[in-house]
Amino acid sequence: MSQVTISIRPARTSDVRAMQDLMTPYVRRRIVLGKETVALYEMIQEFLVAESEGEVVGFGALHVMWEDLGEIRTLVVSPDAGGQGIGRRLVAALEARAVDLGLSRLFCLTFEVEFFARNGFAPIGEHVVAPDVYAQLVRSPDEGIAEFLDLAHVKPNTLGNTRMLKHL
């Protein structure tokens, strides 16, 4: 059996359709929150993709939340490409990007607690930012920030996910 080469690169607008196709089964199973096509295009610069033989086999996004804080969002790997370390490589590449941006902490909201724990994340409690930062973050219309802050209005959207944090 030959070794398949996986490359990690910044996403391009031409990847959006493949990303949406990969995401759809996870959205149907309520594992990830769906994103409208227009939102994927608007956020394309936040995404990295894993590519094998010209095909997108995984992707994930890094969203900056505050001067030292980012979120890994929408991490998806094709079920056909599972077990090859693609998710781990995407997380490592997103972490490297976070460090380049000056971030020192990464948040994720996930059902895949064991995966993220193996990658250095730990479940978090309620008070993970200073009160003055909280006062600024609570003003954001971004649902991911509301989920990070564990605000009551997003609890129905989190589907029972675990809030996790990693110090870089």
UniProtKB/TrEMBL annotation:
| Gene Ontology terms, MF aspect | N-acetyltransferase activity
Top EC class of this enzyme:
transferase
Protein name from the UniProt record: Amino-acid N-acetyltransferase
**Occurrences of domain N-acetyltransferase (ranges):** 6-143
- According to its UniProt entry, this protein's organism is Propioniciclava coleopterorum
- Top-level taxon in the UniProt lineage: Bacteria
Identify the Pfam families for this entry: Acetyltransf_1
Q: Which UniProt keywords apply?
A: Acyltransferase, Transferase
